[in-house]
Write a structure and sequence with these properties.
heterodimer; A: Rossmann fold; 4-stranded mixed β-sheet; 24 helices; elongated; B: Rossmann fold; 6-stranded parallel β-sheet; 8 helices; globular
Chain lengths: 484, 250
């Protein structure tokens, strides 16, 4: 997927004007966020589970080379095939070639953010292969020709009427809007036929177990199960960070993932795949392929300040908790991963220079850190990225600040560093600001500080400095004390 | 260098190492049990499932209701068969598919269902061979997609989450609990584990002894989605309704 992180401000502004979308975005708070709060409160050892989840991920990432080798060995032991892809283009090409050599006509896709990095469905369609998204939300946005709005609720921004227009060929604006039940059943019928004829599936991977070469897929809809039952070829795609060491780690990871994602204690389905169908089984894929993709993740790994972001298990809790995501929406972030975690990984994976507005699009309230099931300190990394974009010290190519901005702060620094310069500055500021202020406030300032006053007022510098006021106060206290 | 070696050596470099550091002392079990302990835990889990069968069945019934199973209690095999036949009748079923779980032959199910005028098929091909060819598989798929009800036993259940665990195999197809619009699972005391911890300890013990199954499904209630306006609707790709029939100890 081509990054459009540069358009964060303009896209955010568009969402802020769209009342329907803003209303839809409330669902992520009332549905997911509040559900998560309740689920966490109902789990007595919740904090211990988070601590353990973080420890499991920290350990695996610190030994990622070892666990990648172990995983690949064991998938092959289970008669599966492993392909290592350096980037999205390589992964995409491998899957397309596989589809061609196996003479595939129909591919069913389960939800996978990694496949969004590859823009896989569109690429397959261009090759003349039918490729259908089967997660209901993904199906809706595929029909709309859009990208996912949320990690686990891709079509959360679509109203019932918009969905009706996409799903029902006979629906025209003005018709009574069908109920959600009715629309869901319509999608069920359409996708059933696709499932039945599918000869290849592409799914994501929630967790890959290194010791046994297993993958776990979590769904509520059942499309993950269809994908591992009907087609003759199953291709699972994963980012290289999705590994856990042992089968027993699954109980911890599943507990924190599902509660954090939807507030459920457990999802309707969890499917564990340990290779292709056994010879005597009537159903199941003849071939199992695991595609392990890097696509820039090594940059996060090599960067001690950013490595922690590879702990992410893609639950979406930080999106739901984020007051900024809930107002600017998922498309504003301009790449596959929206919200706070997107603001951390997109700049590193797609380039900070274009994406520097993302880490700035945060109030640093810390809600994302508070809800993260693996305790990723997102605000710390947002600050780190802001610093890099402003100073360009770790990499001059990352510097995104303007000459004007840097000059302004440089002179500010010079002014603040000397007592006499500071005192002079304080006096001259009031003198300069008075003509444009009214009742002690500036409502509209000239450039270069006009940016500030477009969204908030600026207070006039006080008539007396703190030092002067303290001196005056001391004088009056002394005077009182000396009174007989 | 192969693609794999190149990929992994790139990761090693990114980690700031010159060679792969093997985690020690127990690489794959840094946060779980040692191999021995996992086996002991698995054995203990089975013992608890038997010793505390009645208590766990009650917990399971409650948790299952919370995740959306329609829970039915019956005290004897004949009643179970009658109840299941009634459920099928309620769906106006004409075709029913069942697994070869022992519990389904222990109850007079086939007779009871046939008495309602419905065909009941077993999800095991009649071919005695050990491998299935593509035409058999095509037939199995058609049967599953056209069935009105799928009936299975359970391999395990999990009291913590109201979950039914199935390991697909010969005689228990992947689709019997997924493709038909209704799924009925029959559960007996002694089959309920306490929590996910016990299940994955047992899976790990199976893995260590080389008997891990090809796949596993954890089923907790009906298929559902909240993808349109955040409204939860049951029955998108899997069953619209799921029934848990608990046999005995009511």
């Amino acid at each position: 997927m081509k990054p459009e992180t540069k358009e964060f401000r303009s896209k955010a502004a568009q969402t802020l004007k769209n009342k329907t979308v803003l209303q839809s975005l409330e669902h992520v708070y009332t549905g997911f966020h509040e559900g998560r709060l309740k689920a966490a409160a109902d789990t007595p050892d919740w904090e211990d589970l988070r601590t353990k989840g973080k420890a499991i991920k920290d350990h695996t990432i610190a030994h990622l080379d070892y666990y990648l080798g172990l995983l690949a060995d064991n998938v092959e032991k289970n008669d599966g095939h492993v392909f290592f892809a350096d980037d999205a283009a390589e992964a995409r090409k491998h899957i397309i070639d596989l589809a061609h050599t196996r003479e595939i006509k129909t591919v069913i896709k389960s939800k996978s953010m990694v496949s969004e990095e590859m823009a896989l469905a569109d690429a397959l369609i261009e090759e003349g292969i039918e490729a259908v998204e089967t997660d209901l939300g993904e199906y809706i946005i595929q029909l709309a020709g859009e990208t996912p709005y949320h990690l686990i609720a891709p079509a959360i921004h679509k109203s019932r009427q918009e969905v009706a227009a996409l799903l029902d060929d006979n629906f025209t604006v003005g018709d009574p809007i069908p109920g959600v039940d009715e629309l869901t059943m319509l999608a069920r019928a359409k996708l059933r036929a696709v499932f039945e004829r599918a000869d290849m599936s592409v799914t994501g991977v929630n967790f890959a177990v290194a010791e046994s070469g297993s993958i776990a897929i979590v769904t509520n809809e059942g499309n993950g199960r269809m994908s591992t039952s009907v087609p003759r070829i199953h291709v699972a795609v994963m980012g290289m960070e999705k590994i856990i060491p042992s089968i027993q780690d699954l109980s911890t990871m599943l507990r924190i993932l599902i509660r954090s994602a939807t507030g459920q204690r457990i999802s309707s389905y969890i499917t564990m795949v340990n290779g292709p169908r056994k010879p005597d089984e009537e159903e199941g894929p003849d071939e199992f392929h695991l595609v392990i993709m890097n696509n820039g993740r090594d940059k996060l790994l090599a960067d001690p300040q950013m490595r922690e972001s590879l702990n992410c298990i893609r639950c979406g809790a930080c999106l739901n908790a984020c007051p900024v995501y809930r107002k600017v929406g998922g498309h504003a972030y301009g790449w596959v991963y929206p919200g706070p975690i997107g603001s951390v990984v997109s700049p590193v994976l797609t380039g900070l220079k274009d994406a520097h507005d993302l880490p700035n699009g945060s109030s640093l309230c810390g809600a994302c850190h508070e809800v993260c099931p693996v305790k990723i300190n997102i605000p710390r990394m947002l600050l780190e990225l802001r610093w890099r974009a402003a100073e360009g010290k770790s990499d001059p190519a990352e510097r995104a600040s303007s000459m004007k901005e840097r000059m302004l702060w440089k002179s500010w620094r010079i002014g603040m560093m000397g007592r006499r310069r500071f005192d002079f500055g304080a006096r001259i500021s009031r003198f300069l600001m008075r003509p444009i202020s009214k009742h002690g406030w500036i409502k509209k300032a000239p450039p270069p500080v006009s940016g500030w006053t477009t969204t908030r007022d600026f207070p006039l510098v006080a008539a007396k400095t703190l030092k002067q006021r303290l001196a005056a106060r001391k004088k009056s206290v002394d005077a009182n004390r000396n009174r007989p | 260098m192969t693609d794999r070696a190149k990929f992994i050596s790139g990761v090693t470099t990114s980690l700031g190492h010159s060679e792969v550091h093997t985690p020690s002392p127990e690489p794959a079990t840094a946060f779980s049990d040692s191999d021995e302990d996992a086996k002991l835990k698995a054995a203990a889990a089975l013992a608890v499932a038997t010793d505390r069968a009645n208590e766990l069945i009650e917990q399971m019934a409650k948790a299952a209701e919370n995740t959306g199973w329609q829970v039915h209690r019956v005290s004897n095999p004949e009643d179970a068969a009658e109840l299941i036949a009634d459920i099928c009748r309620g769906y106006d079923a004409t075709s029913v598919l069942r697994s070869t779980h022992g519990v389904l032959t222990d109850i007079p199910l086939d007779v009871a269902v046939r008495d309602t005028g419905v065909t009941i098929d077993v999800t095991e091909s009649t071919d005695p061979g050990d491998t299935t060819d593509s035409s058999e598989r095509e037939e199995a798929k058609k049967a599953a997609f056209s069935a009105d009800v799928g009936i299975t036993g359970v391999d395990y259940a999990i009291a913590e989450t109201g979950t039914v665990v199935l390991h697909p195999r010969k005689g228990l197809s992947r689709l019997v609990s997924l493709a038909p619009p209704a799924h009925i699972a029959v559960l007996r005391p002694g089959e309920v584990l306490e929590s996910l911890d016990e299940l994955f300890a047992m899976e790990r013990a199976d893995f260590l002894s080389g008997t891990l199954s090809g796949s596993m499904n954890l089923i907790s209630g009906p298929s559902k989605t909240g993808d349109i306006e955040g409204t939860i609707v049951t029955g998108i790709h899997g069953p619209l309704e799921v029934h848990l029939v608990i046999l005995g100890n009511s």
